[in-house]
Write a structure and sequence with these properties.
By secondary structure, this protein is mainly alpha-helical. The chain has a single domain, classed as Orthogonal Bundle (Multidrug-efflux Transporter Regulator, Chain: A, Domain 2). Helices cover 60% and strands 7% of the residues. A three-stranded antiparallel beta sheet has the order 1-3-2. The longest helix is centred in the C-terminal third of the chain and has 28 residues. This is MerR family transcriptional regulator. Keywords: DNA-binding. It holds the Pfam family MerR_1. One of its GO terms (molecular function) is DNA binding.
Length: 121
């Protein structure tokens, strides 16, 4: 999973249900062609495909992509090693993914609370 020290490098995931490949590329700091390649290599990535074969990623996909990015770019794993790591620790990572989602939701809710508590002009 993404280390806490690396969370500042990547933008916060917006509260949307679906993301285009361009949005995911920006959110995860990788190129679109890299995402398409990773879809072939990692069975955990399965974006919804709609008309015109357009890809729509969900929040869980974005988190998985960030995890793959961290394994490959930050921790130095090969594609094969990253596949093994994801497969062997999928159940354990579900918990940490949920923890990351909860932390992010808390941050977003605190931002909303700040907006609501701001003085009216």
């Amino acid at each position: 999973m993404l280390e806490p020290s690396h969370n500042d490098e990547l933008p916060t995931i917006p509260g949307k249900r679906y993301f285009t490949i361009g949005e995911v590329a920006d959110l995860c700091a990788v190129k679109a062609h890299v995402l398409r390649y990773w879809e072939q290599e990692f069975p955990q990535l399965s974006p919804v495909k709609r008309r015109g074969n357009r890809r729509y990623y969900q929040r869980a996909d974005v988190i998985t992509i960030r995890q793959i990015r961290s394994l490959l770019y930050d921790q130095g794993y090969t594609i094969g090693g990253a596949k093994q790591k994801l497969s062997s620790s999928e159940a354990k990572d579900d918990t940490s993914q949920y923890k990351q989602l909860i932390r992010q939701m808390i941050t977003e809710l605190e931002e909303v609370l700040d907006v609501l508590n701001a003085p009216v002009r």
